Protein 1
Amino acid sequence: MQKQRQTLLAIVFGLLVGCGGGRSSLKPPTDPPVPTVSPSSESPSSTTDVLTYHNNNARTGENLGETQLTSSNVNVNSFGKLFVMPVDGKVDAQPLYVSQVALSDNSRHNLLFVATEHDTVYAFDGDTGKKIWQVSLLGPDETTSDPRACDQVVPEIGITATPVIDRKSGPHGSLYAIAMSKDSAGNYFQRLHALDLANGSEQFGGPQEVQARYPGTGDGSDGQQVVFDPKQYKERAGLLLLNGIIYTTWASHCDIRPYTGWIIGYDEQTLKQVRLLNLTPNGSGGSFWNSGAGPAADDSGNIYLLQANGTFDRNLDEAGFPETGNFGNAFLKVSTNGTLSVADYFTMHDTVSQSARDEDLGSGGVLLIPDTSDETGKTAHLAVGAGKDGSIYVANRDSMGKFNPDDNHNIHQQLVRALPGSEFGMAAYSNGLLYFGDVNRRLKAFRLSGAFLSPVPESESSNTFPYPGTTPSVSGSGSSSRIVWAVENSANAVLYAYDANDLAKELYSSDQASSGRDYFGQGNKFVVPTIVNGKVYVGTVNSVAVFGLLPAK
């Protein structure tokens, strides 16, 4: 499980001095005034949406419908901060975007949806920044949760995970989010909400309280079943919508026991619980926090996850699965055909000692690589993930490798210590390249060829990224104009843009402009930029900054 620590301002500035790639670290301590740039008053026609974490269920972070921002116009002279939209708490969830939403006055808007740790969801006009609606997901006599004696999400826990949107659900489309709260009597709640996109109203009789029991004698059990205790968990990983079911995956607060590894699914039209699996039912640990990355899913309805440190049973049945159902610290393939079940998995030969050292896979997220061909021409179905041990693991989704107590040769490919800073986020993929941003290291591009990754990066950025590294995203409509975007978590956050074919070519950074024109606020860990329809949206500790092409002078 992660052991995040809040970085003091002085330490952050020290990291900037040591990791700035030669760029000055003398940044103002507060966010400067918003520049006098007037956004367009009209919402242009748009058909591109970002409805889930990292753009799609494969979690590639790729938007190939972006035609307005190109490698030729993203530079400090023509691109920069347009405006900032203030909100009431930390924006830990990735902002989501729905084009041309019809409102009650028959107007249509490109809406940006922002969820905060103050348990508020906002809908903004994504082109002008005008607030369309906001709703609180707190119940009567409730506040947001305290940090639960843990420094991972502070100073309050509300909506941490990236919601998911279905445009076809309900009369105007629905946004699904998990919110944590507590009442004056000290009771804690986790609830699934379904909000109407046009007005924020609750749909389908919601919200639905998250409650669960699963056969087992592990942490938090009553002797026969493990019990989901809402105060012991937070929803950190992004929500997954798959075949009409909203899947939630649960993290602990630091490593504070008791907790186990839950996957809970809800029917998107009724909000009733319809799927349930615990991955450490007779043990402890094994949560899913993944630095905010949502579980990935393939077209056959399988879910792929990286599980954090926890009990792994090395006593295997005839099929090679743990006899007690304990899969702590594993790369999982979960079937959703009927009841949830583990269809396949991979874990390291030293998985137990890795968990004991808190050097697990759970700090990273899974990316499904588009179908590729090996050297024989056979189609390869691959998934990639990385965590705290610094290795990149490429798994064959048709035969993941399971457990071998002697070595890791049963996995498709392992790049040992390819990410020496450790991965606290996930990769992005585009055009045969995988982009990783580990802690205190340069952003790296690894080439995929013949169904294997190159052992060394093909290109790297000139700058490094302090904790927690960075989770990149990719935009562009053609191979020559693709851009890799990444955010630096620092006292004054920095947005970077690179040529996707060569990360050494930095196109833009928000600290290039004079007089702090593009500074946009304090950085926030695990933030993922959303790039859509000519704009880049970046969450901070109290706002969402909007970048785009500057008005002609």
Protein 2
Amino acid sequence: MTIIGIAIVIIVIAGIAGYYYTMPTTKLKETLVMGTTDSVESCLDPVRAYDFFGWEIIQSLGCGLVEYKAGATGSVDDIAPSLATSWSVSTDGLIWTFNLRQSILYEDNVTEFNATHVKYSFDRAIGIADEDGALVGIGYDGIIDNVTVTSKYVVKFYLKIPFAAFLSLMACQASYIVNPAYAPMPTNMSDPVSRSNAVIVYTEGNARSSHPMGLGPYKLAIWTRTAGKDYEMRLEANPNYWNAGAGYPKTKKMIIKFYADSVGLALAIQAQEIDIAFRQLSATDINSMKTNTNLKVWEGTGAFIQYLVLQEKYAPFNNTQIRQAVGAAINRTTMVNTVFLGQAQKLYSMIPIGMFGHTDAFLTLGDPNYTKTQELLAELGYNQTNKLSFKLWFETSGHYPSSQQQATVLKSSLEASGVIAVTLDSADWPSYRTHRQNEDMEAYILGWYPDYIDPDDYIQPFLDSSGGSWIHHNYNNPQMDKLIAWARGNTTATARSSLYNQIQNLMVEDCPIIPTYQGSAYAVTTLKIKGIYLDITQSWRHWLVYAEE
């Protein structure tokens, strides 16, 4: 995203970030209620959290050095100051210097934020990162060499490579700053148990001890769970937030209620028991609500993708030809039209449509091409009387939109080849995650929201054998590793484009993951709700949402 060839210095005017808008002069509602079928996957600690909703809450409770403007399109110009007021980068792209805000207190009203907290946060994060967290998934330790405090309010990042997406990486929630008082450093960095014990997890009855942040627009006042599932969260305005003086957050209290499925969520917003419904409403309900004069449907840019993962650890998907045969039998048109009623796009690449580097690489396999599927499998002895059989898994917790319907369509399209037989299986999200970690699912559906806005984020975490272990599909190709390393370390747009073209072509040859569709972002609210921005970051910004009395 940043082209480095000559000395580049980026100076951002200190003070309030320019993307915040003029506050309304009318009286605003003190409290809003939001409903969702989502939940926290593991915790609210940036070192391990790696799910959409977990990051949504981390973003409300904490801050990074920089952040994306509301309405961002993916340009580096969309990045605005947060805890840093200005920054610069050296000619070789290996040293980034950040000047920090001064006199900013954590929510404890005692501890003043300074450069030592930045270093502490990154040293801790990289030191105790495990395979389920973003730090490993993204590969922070392959990018950042060290973080050095040069003065109380100045910090330098020394990189191992000139990383094109570094500023975007600093905007993602895995890069958020933690309060050392609530984020312990392991007593022994070489001991996995000690590192694991340093991760902050849910503490029943103690919301403050359930997360390590404290610089964000909100404080976590209540977090209750029932039988291991989220029941309710309450966010309350943090008076020490760096932009509180400008009137943020606009709504002082946000209550989040959790629903078991899209049916319950739809009923709640239709009855106006809640003010906002976000993730996951069915496509049918969204279309119906577009004609409801008491509700407003918000539609935004989609950078969310879904894909089919094939486990290469054992048969049948340890065979490349079988994976290609499955890839050729995917009917994306049926998926988009029947499951999402046209509210999605067919996707032939892991890089989203509209993002730099995207090509329709998987279209070369067909959509579908059953003749190709039959020919590939025939060479391996499969036919109409001896079908390729496997189990396809999907999650049941509303973590992804219409998961069961997706699985049903995939089963139907694969079996339409005449030479494949699919059995469906499912699990709630916590169990699904465990199955993924245990590597006992043959084929399974996953989805992805961007960590940072760059094609690297849709490629490296999935295909780099040294950094993609979170997905547990056991894909390993040294040539792919080389291409990914060259692409993330190259800051020339033309060279990166060529490399991503090669990466996508190689992905089609290997078929470890098969992209299916790219979704749009939707929210439904009561008529008075304002301040919602569904942009390419896919970030939900609680602090900008409000309603007039």
